[in-house]
Design brief:
With 319 residues, the chain is an alpha/beta fold. It has 11 helices and 14 strands. It binds adenosine-5'-diphosphate and magnesium ion. Adenosine-5'-diphosphate binds next to β2 and α1.
Length: 319
């Protein structure tokens, strides 16, 4: 449904987006991650046809967004960054207006507004003016605008930004529901959101795509992914290390002592057999008669992967 090919955007001498390519299929929820200033919003503005690319192209539902914008934009619902709304309209007035500019009139319009209001939990503020809404309600009003025409493609720029944990949860549930029959791309810097909602994630840094994979594939890029950690009592650290290192499938072993117990971490010699490593460690502990109260396999942490493949703001060269 969405094909992004070699997308480039220059702002004067600054290249904000640099040869970005990816696709989103129907039924897919793509998380678009990256530090502040990485180029997420600029990419999304180009996907929706809000700004033209310097080069490259975007195809939505078979239509080139720049050459054939009307049919492409018909398919797209867009929640821009910071959720802009007309603040002097009521929620109902704003959504009716959004439905009309999407070509809905009469009972079809009323039905579309009713449905979007229900999905975004806006019943209680329907006749309140947008400028008196709390942030969560204003955000959901703008989200309701993006789904009013039941689009096949949703482009949501930080849909959970500034919401409280309950509201975040509601939006994630909504995305999961929509995701079953739409193609969704949403940006976030909340990494748990990737696990909670995404089928795939693309990470960009300084305009470049630096990772593209399922949450599990991305986690597996963590240095410690597949390692097994063990906490043992009543045995010396050296003995624990020697025995663990003697396992045929063990790679590097590190140990530390803390408060009477030994904390050991075993990296697999071969990352593809990490399941067997946990079993081998447990069997060894059984044979040795070790008392252990913790044994777990590290799946890899997205925040660590994110930190190792993107540069923090403070280390970036001045623009
Ligand atoms: N209209 C613009 N004019 C000049 N620079 C811009 C403009 N929009 C964005 N930028 C710059 O492009 C880079 C990417 O911005 P943006 O896409 O908003 O990042 P993100 O959404 O990932 O935080 C930033 O350095 C930003 O300052
Ligand atoms: Mg942004």
């Amino acid at each position: 449904m969405i094909t992004v090919e070699n997308l480039v955007k220059d702002f004067g001498p600054k290249r904000a987006v640099n040869r970005v390519s990816f696709t989103v299929k129907k039924g897919e929820i793509l998380g678009f991650l990256g530090p502040n200033g990485a180029g997420k919003s600029t990419t999304m503005r180009m996907i929706t046809g809000f700004i033209p690319p310097t080069s490259g192209r975007v195809v939505v539902g078979g239509h080139d967004v720049n050459e054939d914008p009307i049919p492409a934009k018909r398919l797209i619902g867009y929640l821009p960054e910071s959720a802009p709304c007309y603040s002097d309209m009521t929620v109902h007035g704003f959504l009716s207006f959004a439905a009309e500019i999407r070509g809905l009139h009469g009972s079809a319009k009323e039905e579309a507004v009713r449905k979007a209001v229900g999905l975004c939990f806006l019943e209680s503020v329907l006749h309140q003016s947008v400028d008196t809404l709390s942030k969560g309600f204003r955000h959901r009003t703008c989200l309701a605008q993006s789904i009013i025409h039941d689009p096949e493609v949703l482009v949501l720029d930080e849909p959970t930004d500034g919401l409280d944990p309950n509201q975040k949860h509601e939006i994630r549930q909504l995305l999961k529901r929509f995701g079953q029959n739409k193609a969704i791309i949403f940006s976030t810097h909340i990494l748990e959101e990737v696990d909670a909602v995404c089928s795939r994630a693309v990470i960009i840094d300084r305009g470049h795509v630096v990772a593209n994979g399922t949450p599990a594939e991305l986690r597996a890029r963590h240095d410690l992914a597949g390692s097994v950690s063990l906490r043992v009592q009543g045995v010396g650290a050296e003995a624990v290390r020697d025995r663990l290192a003697g396992l045929g499938i063990a790679g590097k072993v590190t140990v530390s002592s803390e408060a009477g117990s030994v904390l050991a971490r075993v990296l697999p010699r071969d990352r593809t057999i990490s399941g067997d490593l946990a079993r081998a460690v447990a069997e060894l502990a059984g044979r040795e008669g070790w008392r252990f109260d913790e044994l777990k396999t590290e799946e890899g942490r997205l925040d660590e992967v994110f930190r190792t493949i993107t540069q923090p703001d403070s280390r970036r060269p001045a623009e």
